[in-house]
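Worked problem 6 (solution included).
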Amino acid sequence: MKRLFLIVMLFLVSCGSVPETRYFTIDYDFTTHGSTDSKGVLFIKKFKSDPIYFQDKLIYKTSRYEIKFDNYRRWALAPSDLLTYKAAEHLRQAGLFKWITLITPRDKECLTLGGTLKNFEEFVENGKRAAKVTILFELEKNQDKGFLWVKEISSTVPINNPGSEGIIQSMSTATQKVFDELAENLKNLDQPL
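Solution. The predicted structure is:
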């Protein structure tokens, strides 16, 4: 019996191979460049997410009821962490604040930006594939109680190119659109520090 088991295992190992696990990140060229109207300090809290996005596997939906996880295509970080860092990078590039930090400032008055990831996935609807990114943003002034504003920003971008690169490219474009709209909202903020 052991011999048969070993023969079967050797056969399976020689015939098949395990697919390579690939890791991805969000990347894009910035369209917003340095503002001359810096507003002070912005603290970006680590984004939260709905529980489905706690893990790093790429998610795709084939219907509104079925969610699938890709075991071999993963994000380099959990989506909430990935987007927290990308938000900081994007807003630094926009130049809206003198200083942007991911560490709670103890000695400075600042605005605090939080976010909750609501969608970060590929989905198929009517035979067409698209990438969707939705984040609920909350902005508050550190010393005040309550929010200056709460806004949900969403972007859906068609996936036109095949394979993993097409998915990640569309996810990156959708993320950029969300952060461009966020930057525009912060630019138009009337609340001085």
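Discussion: Strands lie at 22-24, 41-44, 48-49, 57-61, 67-75, 99-101, 111-125, 128-141, 149-158.
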